Amino acid sequence: MPTAASVGLSRWHVASRVFAATIPAFILANTLSIALGFLVPGIKANGVAWATLLSYAIYTCLIMWIFSVKRLKTVWLSIVGGIVVTSGAAWLFYFLENRP
After folding, report:
1. What is the pLDDT along the chain (100 residues), one digit of tens a residue?
2. If exposure means fewest CB atoms within 10 Å of the residue's CB, which of 1, 32, 48, 53 is most exposed?
3. What is the signed CA dihedral for 60, 38, 89, 87, rounded to 10 degrees?
4. Taking Cα atoms as reference points, which of 79, 84, 85 lies closest to residue 63?
5. Using CB atoms within 10 A of its CB, is residue 23 exposed (0-12), middle (13-18) or buried (19+)?
6. How far is CA 61 from CA 6, 56, 64, in A?
7. HEC letters along the chain
């Protein structure tokens, strides 16, 4: 029989996963698509459109991954680390493309 503490902890884990699947996962999918948009060769509009369409698949995969991983700490560390890396890559690609 589950205790009151374990039920409260379980509710906290579910709420944390739901939050991670909404805003942080969306930010990660968008920063990754921005970074990928710089890498697509050819016309810039085609690269942005391709990366935007890919971001929907990435976001869907992120949501499924968030609810399939056993450890909540792994979810948050991966999402925050992914946001830092992909946003840094996007800024780097932006500055490399627009340098004088």
Report:
1. 667 666 666 889 899 999 999 999 999 999 999 999 998 888 888 888 999 999 999 999 999 999 999 999 999 999 999 999 999 999 999 999 888 7
2. 1
3. -50
4. 79
5. exposed
6. 29, 9, 5
7. CCCHHHHHHHHHHHHHHHHHHHHHHHHHHHHHHHHHHHHCCCCHHHHHHHHHHHHHHHHHHHHHHHHHCCCHHHHHHHHHHHHHHHHHHHHHHHHHHCCC
| Angle (nearest 5°) at CA 64 between 24 and 49 | 65
Tokens 């399939």 appear where? Answer: 68
Amino acid at 11: R
Scan for tokens 């920063």, then name that residue.
Answer: 31
